Each structure stands twice: as C-alpha cells, then as structure tokens.
Amino acid sequence: MTVSNSTTRIPQSEADIDDEIADLEHKLAEAKIRRQRFKSSASQPRIPSPSSKTDSALPLGSFAFSSGLESYLSHQKHYLPSSPQGQPSPVTVFISSFLPLSLSSYAATSLPFVLAAARLVSQPSQLTSAALTALDDAQDAAIPCVVARRASIAQGRALLGIWERSFDGVVRHPAAVTEEGAKQAEEALRGFATLVRKSSSSTLASSSASAAAPTTMDEDAPPASSAHLAPLFGAVASLLGLAPEEAAYVFLLGHVKALVSAAVRAGMFGPYQAQRTLAGGEVHEMITAMVEREWETEVEDAGQTVPVMDLWVGRHELLYSRIFNS
C-alpha cells in the first residue's frame, strides 16, 4: 500500500525546521496549560452557590425529555431488559453505547456556545443582549433536528425564568468579573429576556392572524430570539461564579444526570445502579474528554457529529406508545 505524502510540507531550510519546532513547542505548552487547568479544577473544587446548578431539582423540565433514549430502546428491541441471555446487559449498553454517543452529540452541538457565553461575561461590555441573540441564532442553526431544537428552547426558557425569579440580584459575582461588568451582564440577560417575551408575543399574534389573513414573508420569519439552553447556561453559570471549564463540565454533567434518570424510568436499571454510574470514573473521563475536545471549537464550527442521534430523537414522536415528551 502506497502512502501519499503530497500534503506533507518538506522543510526547505534550517529556518523552516526551526519554525516547525517552535510551532510544536507552542502547541505542547498550550496542551500542558490545559492539562494543569483541569488538574487544578479537580484538586480545588469551588463550593459556592453555583452548586445549585447541578441540582436535579432545578426546574428546567429535564424529566420530560429522554434525549432520544426511549426511541433508541424502541428501535433496538434486543437491548431491552427482557432480552435473552447472551445479549449485552442494559447497563452495558447504556454506558458503552448510548451514553458516549449522546454525550458526544450534545457536546458538539452545544458546548461551544456554553464556553462562548461564559467567556463573554469576564470581558467588560462584551456580553450584551445583541451578543446573546447572535449566539442564540447560531445555536438554532447548529441543531438540525426539530425535536432537539424544541427541547433546547424549552429548557433555555425555563432557565431564563429561573434567573429572573431566583438568581437575579441575589448572587455573588465571581472575582474575575468586575462590579460594572457584572451589572452589564445582568442587564444583558434582562434585555434578552424582554426580547424573548416580545418574540413569543409576536409569534402568538402571527398565529392568531394567520387564520384570517394570508401569511406574509415577515410572518414566516423565525422569532428574533429562541432562548436556547447552552448560551444562557454559560452566561448564568459564569455570573454565579463558575469558570468556563467548570461551567462546561456542569453543563455536560446535567445532561448525563438527565439521561441516567430517563434510563431508570425506562426500566433499563434501578436507582442504585444509577448512582453507581454517576459515581464511576467512566462518566468523569467522558465529560472531561468532551470538554477538552470542544475547548477551542468556535461556534461557527459547532454541529452534529453523530447523525444517528437525530434519527432517534426525531423518530420519538412517531412511537406508538411513549412516556417522555421527547
């Protein structure tokens, strides 16, 4: 077998080799910094009010969604708990098959937006309602599945309501954010919430008028702001005191918790196995790997990397019998 080296650039001089060495050393230094950052986060965890962000009682409505798990089980009948001997156990199937696929898909489509919003909070005057709207619009384009998009919007609007009713004005700002910067970020969230409400009102008005009048191009246009979960989570988590890497970890951990809860209610395993799964090292390793993978991903590059997840999520509404909303 012949390997083509047509794309490999051969150094033409000693200066070219020196440049290549310098570039590799720079990449190595950046990798060491990222590794040290994750070690520091693990050895010195923060325990401020943001711990409430990992609480399963946080009313985001996650219990209503299975993120494609119920559809996956319905399309993989031999993986159900009633499967004959010799087949993989439901626990094995969940941990080794569905969970990695779902986590990879979720990280690829959403994590860049969490990180982008979290980083904006620490930059004075950068987090504005216009910036949130731009991230929200990009997130809408990064989720091709209508069902997944609807779930993201439902949870995002729930988080926005939690911010307005519970967190706004009562949280301590992180040390990395100045008082002025925190106020600007809070104003941006309030402005974004107002824009979302106006968008919802306009959508309802257009729906009511469509029965009596022909639909125009303006009425067919999407709402100005959808309020997807990922960018709002990044902004709120950062204002609550979480560093970007911590916000990303908590975001993915929340997804894993929701999946484990869905697996329990779907009868794949019991509550004790659920806690064993969450406490195991595999979940931590998977989440850490996803955060490292998406750490430098731009929002323009975010998108679905596991197409089959969109099939499972999208076909959920076609199931004859189901216990989850989506």
Automatic annotation (TrEMBL):
GO terms for molecular function: nickel cation binding. Residues 39-55 have a biased composition (Polar residues). Residues 35-58 are annotated as: Disordered. Pfam families: UreF. It comes from the Eukaryota. Keywords: Chaperone, Nickel insertion. Signal peptide: none annotated. InterPro entries: UreF, UreF_sf. PANTHER family: UREASE ACCESSORY PROTEIN F. Belongs to the UreF family. This is Urease accessory protein. It comes from Chaetomium thermophilum (strain DSM 1495 / CBS 144.50 / IMI 039719). The lineage of its organism: Eukaryota, Fungi, Dikarya, Ascomycota, Pezizomycotina.
